[in-house]
């Protein structure tokens, strides 16, 4: 399988609070990041993955590592703030790849974009050409504001793409399926040597369920420990959200009582 160093860019802007991708854009994205990172590290034992956030001041959460546990932990430390800063995010990700220890690893950035991208197209294409010159492939997952961003992101991917078509754009509208399910069936997680079974999600992000997808994008028979870790992680997050809702409801009830007295 392909030996790669991959930097995953997470959109942690305030737009991630929206719940059009249940339970929220952030949670759906967190699940998808788990899917991407686990697939990358499983595909080749020497492949490494890093995770960074790209809203306002970009932050590297985990440097290049094969340790999926560090990545899972880091995603629960993501703080929401401001607006997505894709230009700085891409350039910082490229620097992280440039300084990878194993120079035999191919370079790839996977960027999640779930909020409006307010940048000049020429600036974005300039960054794309620099990435292409340095042999960096880029996969873009466009969701949330996919209709608003589609033309800009298509132009970016067209500029960064190689003759071999090593970069991809997958646009996923709300209400179709989990982000992780779409991504697991897309060219983003399919080896270049692997044949396509059924239609790609491609730029449209189309295609429904089916296809033998596993929960969290992980086959429990192939990696039971990772599947269990992902399940526990999601259950803990769901429990946290339930507690927060209960506390909010209790607080609202008390305020109502005080208002009546």
What labels describe this entry?
single chain, 261 residues, alpha/beta, Rossmann fold, 2 domains, 6-stranded mixed beta sheet, 7 helices, UIM_dom, VWFA domain-containing protein, proteasome
SSE layout and pairing:
Elements: E1 4-10, H1 25-43, E2 48-53, E3 59-65, H2 68-75, H3 86-98, E4 106-113, H4 121-133, E5 136-143, H5 146-160, E6 168-172, H6 179-184, H7 224-260
Parallel strand pairs: 1-2, 1-4, 4-5, 5-6
Antiparallel strand pairs: 2-3
Structural overview:
The structure is a single chain. This protein is of the alpha/beta class. It has two domains: 4-185, Rossmann fold, CATH 3.40.50.410; 218-260. It is 43% helix and 16% strand. The chain contains seven helices and six strands; from the N terminus they run E-H-E-E-H-H-E-H-E-H-E-H-H. It has helices spanning 25-43, 68-75, 86-98, 121-133, 146-160, 179-184, 224-260, and strands at 4-10, 48-53, 59-65, 106-113, 136-143, 168-172. A six-stranded mixed β-sheet has the order 3-2-1-4-5-6, sandwiched between helices. Helix 1 links the parallel strand 1 and strand 2. The longest helix has 37 residues, at 224-260. It is globular and about 55 Å long. The termini are far apart. 41% of the residues are buried. The model is unreliable at 192-214 (pLDDT under 50). Pfam families: VWA_2. This is VWFA domain-containing protein. Residues 235-248 have a biased composition (Basic and acidic residues). Residues 199-215 have a biased composition (Gly residues). Residues 187-218, 235-261 are annotated as: Disordered.
